[in-house]
Amino acid sequence: MWVSIPVSDREMEWIARIGGPWRKNRDGLFRQSNVELALVTESVWKRWHLPDGGAPILTLDTINDKELSKILAEGAQVARPTEMTEWGVPAGFVRFPSGVLLEVKPNDGGERE
């Protein structure tokens, strides 16, 4: 199975800065080897209180908080502030200009579980 998510060059730079490293292959695509595919139903989307359903959601293993602050200053926007989820984990979402949502969870030292 293959899933591609279109992002601008600038957004790919942001993604690499906050949660790299990514491999750039000869075909020009950026890849991660540890990717899990999850499909989100409309009912789950609504239950999570996400805006404008249908955007891809990117969840990274680690988030560089300093770089996240920088990309917010460069044009990304908070789509939903961090709050406790129904499964007991605090999480928020940042929207990139392309519509891609980045799931953000509080972390300590950059590592996320």
Write the layout of secondary structure elements.
Blueprint: H1 9-19, E1 23-24, E2 30-31, H2 42-47, E3 57-59, H3 65-73, E4 77-84, E5 90-95, E6 101-104
Parallel strand pairs: 3-6
Antiparallel strand pairs: 1-2, 4-5, 5-6
Summarize the structure.
With 113 residues, this protein is an alpha+beta fold.
How would you explain this protein's 3D organization?
By secondary structure, the protein is an alpha+beta fold. The chain has one domain: 2,3-Dihydroxybiphenyl 1,2-Dioxygenase, domain 1 (Roll). It contains three helices and six strands. It has helices at 9-19, 42-47, 65-73; strands at 23-24, 30-31, 57-59, 77-84, 90-95, 101-104. The strands form two sheets. Strands 3-6-5-4 form a four-stranded mixed sheet, with no helix packed on it. It has a two-stranded antiparallel sheet with strand order 1-2. A hairpin with a 5-residue loop joins strand 1 and strand 2 (30-31). The longest helix is centred in the N-terminal third of the chain and has 11 residues, at 9-19. It is globular and about 40 Å long.
Note the total helix count.
3
CATH class: Alpha Beta
- Uncertain runs are 108-113
Mean pLDDT: 82
In the CATH scheme, what's the topology name? 2,3-Dihydroxybiphenyl 1,2-Dioxygenase, domain 1
Ends apart, CA distance between termini: 26 Å
- Beta strands, count: 6
> H/E series, N to C?
HEEHEHEEE
Q: What sort of overall outline do the alpha carbons produce when their principal axes are compared? A: globular
CATH architecture: Roll
Structural class, please?
alpha+beta
Alpha-carbon Rg, integer: 14 Å
Question: How do the strands line up in the largest sheet?
Answer: 3-6-5-4
Number of domains: 1
Percent range for β-strand residues: 15-25%
What is the helix fraction of residues, given as a range? 10-25%
> Largest beta sheet, briefly?
4 strands, mixed
